[in-house]
Design a protein that fits this description.
single chain, 7-stranded mixed beta sheet, 44% helix
Length: 256
């Protein structure tokens, strides 16, 4: 039986929640440090983390804010986030089951909204961006970190193809120019603050989400057949043939 996107996300990430709780890619790194820096928290802010997953971003912000609300559409992910919060003695977090495109909060509710490694699952990223703007107070910040699609058409196709083979709940990685356009349309003054290269080891990348063997073989075949410009852009490993690098960006929006 085919699943709708929401059901696919819940099925994929419900089964993988504990893997994401232990993931080094998600638990820290320069992109999370930059989000905290750009937020400029003073300690009295209310923060919303959209698509919180196992809670790593929400937990990091909770150390510097008055209150953090962690929202996800997968209960198992929220359960992992609650467990980690209790383990670290953080009591200023709330947890909400919900959808980025229909945030269950009134207008002007938050000082900062964050989204980290989640937006490539948004069925309607423009609507989700407008929702972030709606719940932010005037002068609030929306900080989004995600894989940034390559502007070249061939490279973009390859990256999104391997992403969706790995995880059928993936919608697409968007380019920096696409994100900046969506932010501007939602009423943000936006900038691409920074980009990083994130090196991914092929087998842990597959194991984290539980990619079936047949689909893993399909990804290997795609990478083996990749043209030179794709191999160079993804920095495909000559040693393993499959370890690769993805661009990650921080898009920052100031609500006017």
């Amino acid at each position: 039986m085919s699943l709708d996107l929401g059901e696919s996300i819940r099925q994929q990430f419900g089964a993988a929640a504990s893997n994401y709780a232990a993931s080094g890619v998600h638990s820290g790194g320069p992109n999370l440090d930059a989000m905290l820096e750009r937020a400029g928290l003073r300690g009295d802010e209310r923060v919303l983390d959209v698509g919180c997953g196992a809670g790593h971003t929400a937990l990091a912000f909770a150390r510097h804010a008055r209150e953090v609300v962690a929202l996800d559409m997968t209960q198992e992910m929220l359960d992992e986030a609650k467990r980690l919060a209790a383990q670290r003695g953080l009591a200023n977090l709330g947890f909400e089951l919900g959808d980025a495109a229909r945030l269950p909060f009134p207008d002007d509710s938050f000082d900062v909204v964050t989204s980290r490694f989640c937006a490539h699952h948004y069925a309607d990223p423009s609507r989700a961006t407008r929702e972030a703007a709606r719940v932010l107070k005037s002068g609030g910040r929306y900080l989004l970190v995600d894989t940034i699609a390559l502007e070249d058409g061939v490279q973009d196709t390859y990256l999104n193809a391997i992403e969706v083979l790995r995880d059928p709940s993936h919608v697409r990685d968007y380019s920096a120019s696409q994100w900046l356009g969506m932010f501007a349309d939602a009423g943000f003054e936006a900038q691409l603050f920074a980009q990083w290269k994130l090196r991914l080891e092929f087998e842990p990348w597959l194991q984290r989400i539980g990619t079936p063997r047949t689909l893993a073989e399909g990804i290997r075949s795609l990478l083996d057949a990749a043209p030179r410009e794709v191999r160079e852009a993804l920095e495909l490993s000559e040693a393993t043939g499959c370890d690769f690098t993805i661009p990650v960006g921080l898009v920052e929006g100031l609500r006017l």
